[in-house]
Design goal:
alpha/beta; TIM Barrel; 8-stranded parallel β-sheet; 9 helices; 8 strands; globular; Pyridoxal phosphate homeostasis protein; PLP-binding_barrel; pyridoxal phosphate; PyrdxlP_homeostasis; Ala_racemase_N
Length: about 230
């Protein structure tokens, strides 16, 4: 585990430097879907300081079991509105907000616990029917609406490009999200920060970094293949 995490961090650093970026701008999210708490604990012990989870029930169990360990928890899966109350309690950052309805419920639940919930807007950059996310054309309007919610803080964008055997083929989609982020940032919407780009996974994270990613979601390269 330690060797795998060190190797990924070395690759992150190399990709950042190749793009003329400061490696400290990029943070590693250890995508721990289906991994037991003991395995996640091992990752944290060996330097994984952000844990990404796709399922609320899994995250509830694991975060409760690992309260003694220092890590930030991010939600990176599809979030159902009826699970927003749990998401607001567990996660420092929710990567996958894609509707006003979902944003409103997260805002409501965060308000109940006196929290300002940091979120990212998920953009379906390729328009794939099988994936959630707002269209690039609708993203600015959604963010303008969300900006009014008192208990939310929109911090950037997230995307999942089509799967390719060659990670380089995902580069145009990462570049498109980066351009969209810059366009939204230029609108200077009050209360909105476009500092984060969550994009890139095990097979394509180096291209994502070179196109501006600040958060890369790495599962297989850290935890190995899932059953």
């Amino acid at each position: 585990m330690k060797e795998r995490i060190t190797h990924i961090r070395d690759r992150v650093r190399a990709a950042a430097m190749a793009a003329g970026r400061d490696p400290s701008e990029i943070r590693l999210v250890a995508a721990a879907k289906t991994m037991p708490a003991q395995t996640v604990a091992q990752a944290i012990k060996n330097g994984a300081d952000i844990i990404g989870e796709n399922y609320i029930q899994e995250a509830r169990d694991k975060s409760a079991a690992l309260t003694h360990m220092k890590a930030s928890w991010h939600f990176i899966g599809r979030l159902q509105t009826n699970k927003a109350k749990y998401a607001a309690r567990i996660f420092d950052l929710i990567h996958s907000v894609d509707s006003v309805k979902l944003a409103r419920e997260i805002d409501k639940q965060a308000g109940k616990i006196g929290k300002t919930q940091r979120i990212l807007i998920q953009v379906n950059i390729a328009g794939e029917a099988s994936k959630s996310g707002v269209s690039p054309q609708e993203a600015p309007g959604l963010i303008r609406e969300i900006a009014w919610f008192e208990n939310l803080s929109a911090r950037g964008l997230m995307t999942m490009p089509p799967f390719f055997d060659d990670g380089e083929r995902a580069r145009p989609f990462f570049a498109a999200l980066s351009r969209l982020r810059d366009e939204i940032a230029a609108q200077d919407i009050p209360g909105v920060s476009m500092e984060e780009l969550s994009m890139g996974m095990t097979g394509d994270f180096e291209a994502a970094i070179q196109e501006g990613a600040t958060l890369v979601r790495i599962g297989t390269a850290i935890f190995g293949p899932r059953a």
